[in-house]
Amino acid sequence: MKKLNFQRIAKHLLTGTSSLRKAFPPLSLHAIESAIKESEAAHQGQIRFVIECALDSAALFAGQTARARAIEVFAQLGVWDTEHNNGVLIYVLLADRDVEIVADRGIDRQTPTDTWRQICHVMEAAFKQAHYEDGAVKGIQAVGQHLSTHYPANGENKNELPDKPVIL
């Protein structure tokens, strides 16, 4: 039987939409969307940015990790459904201040796992300092650099996935 983490459960129960609006106000969400558009102009990859305030109680009591939830969201949003299998999800679980990057098989097999983890750490460090917009934009830029290396722009960059951040 899994041991419940009551401190984590309390954080999730106390992290609501007001926390989200404080961390990511409308201007920050717009900056994130702009960063994705700018990044995608330099490569053929697709970036989705998702923010979830907290996990629901069933997921919490089951001990769902941010990584497991990110993989679930990756599938739900169809980030895997791009022509070149080069979609990348940046998932932020605000209650845990955890960032997870899930990359489709096209880009993932060309990028060491540690690369994604390093980008996550940079973002998480910024979030701990309450620099949410800056951390998000730097993360998008770093992911974009890797996509540019392996999937450079070819003049036909079609936007297969929306650039607007998703709030769950």
TrEMBL record:
Residues 30-145 form the TPM domain. This is TPM domain-containing protein. The lineage of its organism: Bacteria, Pseudomonadati, Pseudomonadota, Betaproteobacteria, Burkholderiales. Gene3D superfamilies: 3.10.310.50. It comes from the Bacteria. Pfam families: TPM_phosphatase.
